[in-house]
Amino acid sequence: MGMQPARLNCLLGWREDKTRLKPSDALIMGKIKNVECVLLARHGRQHTIMPTDVNYQANVWALREEGCTHLLATTACGSLREEIQPGDIVIIDQFIDRTTKRAQTLYDGRPTSPPGVSHIPMAEPFCTRTREVLLEVARGLGVKCHPQGTVLTIEGPRFSSRAESLMFRQWGADVINMTSVPEVVLAKEAGLCYASIAMATDYDCWKEHEEAVCVDNVLKTMKENANKASSILLTAIPLICTQEDWTHTIKALKTTAQSSIMLPKQH
């Protein structure tokens, strides 16, 4: 999720499925080296949905309903660390949530939602095993990749002030974006193996004598580095499928998700 599916569309011959669940765009379904996959553009294929308005619940639920076991996301981010340079990849492993307007759970009490209240544990929000595959692939491809990092997700759509950017550095955040939360939370509630490829596009605005983040620079760096994410995904997906059995990992995630739900008492 996150990457423009059209980059893979022309190579792999996909079909579209307009699901009833109202995700960000039609699901694009097909195979990568005989592995069945579903692609979904988080902001829509024309990038018309701002971060606050992305229907993260519908996106995650639609992928779960299609039988997906892994959710591999891509995200543009600003670097909050000198050593994470524009163009670098970060396989993020923790988050700080600064969003304010987003549904944080699939169990929100609506008639169409599953019953109960979910208190999902988030000590390890990202799937360690899936992250290890992405890291192994990135290194094998010669891509400069940081093995872990804390992402701070802001509400957006505006970028941070310099005071905010400096504060986020003091908090221990390594990169900043607008989309990882609540996506990672909902994926864990859904029992999916979730990992994210964060692509650093700039130094946000904390760094003196460096041009502050702007849309033009983000798009320029994304265009220059989009092939890195594509290559990692195209290599990692079949590798995930051919690795040792994922049954235990998936079962453990689903057990955690299920055991986190508190159902109303029956009278």
TrEMBL record:
This is S-methyl-5'-thioadenosine phosphorylase. Its EC number is 2.4.2.28. Substrate binds at M178, D202, Y203, D204. CDD domains: MTAP_SsMTAPII_like_MTIP. Residues 24-237 form the Nucleoside phosphorylase domain. It catalyses: S-methyl-5'-thioadenosine + phosphate = 5-(methylsulfanyl)-alpha-D-ribose 1-phosphate + adenine. It comes from Salmo trutta. Its main location: cytoplasm. One of its GO terms (biological process) is purine ribonucleoside salvage.
